[in-house]
Amino acid sequence: MSVLRLTRLTVDAARADEMLVRRAALIEAVRRTTDGLTDTKLARVDEETWLDVWRWDSGETLDRVAATAPALPEAQAAFAVVRDAQVERYDLVDER
């Protein structure tokens, strides 16, 4: 079953472009470690609030990557520009 991990984060508006570059580097780094990251989406709520949704092929894959990803230099760089990150996890039960 696919799993969604949603991160609501805050980034200073002046650093939005930097965050986008660092996020892209993080996605590339994670994809080098697994093929279980199937899709990512980023939405802007307002000038400083973003929703970042990553879709995983399974909860097991997400758990495995979540245990090691914080040590990636790209993860550390990406989250260095983020404030107030709140993470939620959902099992995807219907998609049309």
TrEMBL record:
Q: What is the lineage of its organism?
A: Bacteria, Bacillati, Actinomycetota, Actinomycetes, Propionibacteriales
InterPro entries per record: Dimeric_a/b-barrel
Q: What is this protein called?
A: ABM domain-containing protein
